[in-house]
Hints:
The protein has 652 residues and is of the alpha+beta class. It folds into 4 domains: 3-131, Glutathione S-transferase Yfyf (Class Pi), Chain A, domain 2 (Up-down Bundle); 162-187 and 203-224, no CATH class; 241-336 and 537-603, Orthogonal Bundle (Neurolysin, domain 3), CATH 1.10.1370; 344-533 and 621-651, Neurolysin, domain 3 (Orthogonal Bundle), CATH 1.10.1370. Helices cover 54% and strands 9% of the residues. It is built from 25 helices and 10 strands. The strands form 3 sheets. The protein has a 5-stranded mixed sheet with strand order 4-5-6-10-7, sandwiched between helices. A hairpin with a 3-residue loop joins strand 5 (384-390) and strand 6 (394-404). One of its GO terms (biological process) is peptide metabolic process. Its cofactor is Zn(2+). Keywords: Hydrolase, Metal-binding, Metalloprotease, Mitochondrion, Protease, Transit peptide, Zinc.
Amino acid sequence: xxxxxxxxxxxxxxxxxxxxxxxxxxxxxxxxxxxxxxxxxxxxxxxxxxxxxxxxxxxxxxxxxxxxxxxxxxxxxxxxxxxxxxxxxxxxxxxxxxxxxxxxxxxxxxxxxxxxxxxxxxxxxxxxxxxxxxxxxxxxxxxxxxxxxxxxxxxxxxxxxxxxxxxxxxxxxxxxxxxxxxxxxxxxxxxxxxxxxxxxxxxxxxxxxxxxxxxxxxxxxxxxxxxxxxxxxxxxxxxxxxxxxxxxxxxxxxxxxxxxxxxxxxxxxxxxxxxxxxxxxxxxxxxxxxxxxxxxxxxxxxxxxxxxxxxxxxxxxxxxxxxxxxxxxxxxxxxxxxxxxxxxxxxxxxxxxxxxxxxxxxxxxxxxxxxxxxxxxxxxxxxxxxxxxxxxxxxxxxxxxxxxxxxxxxxxxxxxxxxxxxxxxxxxxxxxxxxxxxxxxxxxxxxxxxxxxxxxxxxxxxxxxxxxxxxxxxxxxxxxxxxxxxxxxxxxxxxxxxxxxxxxxxxxxxxxxxxxxxxxxxxxxxxxxxxxxxxxxxxxxxxxxxxxxxxxxxxxxxxxxxxxxxxxxxxxxxxxxxxxxxxxxxxxxxxxxxxxxxxxxxxxxxxxxxxxxxxxxxxxxxxxxxxxxxxxxxxxxxxxxxxxxxxxxxxx
Length: 652
């Protein structure tokens, strides 16, 4: 077969055939809709268009981010751009708009979910400018394509320019970080001369450290040499420099788009359909949280400063940004007798996958079975395919796991829903056939992969998204799985993070790689204690990130060059315990959520609030309760976006 089981994708240029077929089928459906069939048939046909196009776009996006073959990546990029251009045609099609307006005006002929689909489809078309004059509509289409290409450039720059730092001698870098480095050499600027009078040809050996996000995190945590940490911090937070200009253009284009659509800002334009429906609601939420967390965060900041002063060999005692990760890790280890390398020995990747299987079996009575991958279906030898099975309901869907880091793979952790589920008839349902869970966990090709506990938390987070897709049973693909209000979408994923911290769950799968002993309860207690040591600092950081995203999109962009640097610096001074930015750095140029979540990053914090409430109400006493799992599935997960989030939350 071909990639993901699609026959066309036996070869890279099969993506173009998939696009041709998708456009051909969609045009047939547009012609059918133009005949103005019944309201229910209009909604069904438009949902099929959405399903047809999204399957190809989502397949292309997964391929672009993970496939090691450049030809496949290039063809997937072309396919994605072609279909996004075609989407502009669909969004500009007056036949579709008039048809869905007609359907919405006849609610008695539609089911509750169909009425909701009709309303959302109309809003989506209006967000594309269908109701505008021809010249404004043309400009909206131009801006949407421009924004798409700029966002793609922003993310590609993050991969191609991760930054690097050269360290001499190599001994300044801890041995445990050598897998992140490449050897380099230089000729000393001075050297002894032999009896011949010629200089020695001895060369100094050093290392080049790439400063992509996960590598930089390790460097800052484990490197004792403060100068190395500083150099790495500045290098990592100054790259990619080109994204300063790209971001300025993204913000400018988004603001122009929002003004054409009659909104004061891009935040106002994009928040209309969220639970927080206006920029002021988001701003108030973030400012209230900033004030709430500030006293505790300042207290934690002082403790780190004092610890550095007591444990530093130098007279300079100011806490620097490159010090935080190093000293907080040391403080956690000492306070809770926590050895992170020992901790990782309980979290081999196969055992963590076993933990996911235990969760679905305990909560939902489901089983994951590993399936053989058909030749041509997979994109890398590390990919594992699982089938989700219910003893009475049968197969519910399929999950690809692509969890290990490798050269050329985008450094993301994400969930891709390739095919969403939808009702085909009264007796048949199209499964959410393909869901992919992608992470970047470091590990050697020859040996086993052991996860830091933060990676375990990430795995469980993304698994929450995957279950949302696999367990939804909506009538329409438009609402399948995570196709929900943006500030509700992260609720299941945040809920499943709790399972990565609960001893009652961890003891069932976290087992030592050699002895097979379950993780000791005291070790989990130490983990939990270490987590809460700097909880306010971490929460303040997330509030700061959300404020950056919000403020950049909630006002008119400045005409000054690289104006985002000053905005970020001002927010850091006002909303964090850090008072002075590091000259020459621009951390936000690698903050990819500015492209994917424009004006919506606050959603993570919103969802954390919902997840905390659900955990306390339903799972805290018994995290593996089948009755609580059944309620979660039947009252929330299975509905995708087919019900209002507030209705589902109150029901649960």
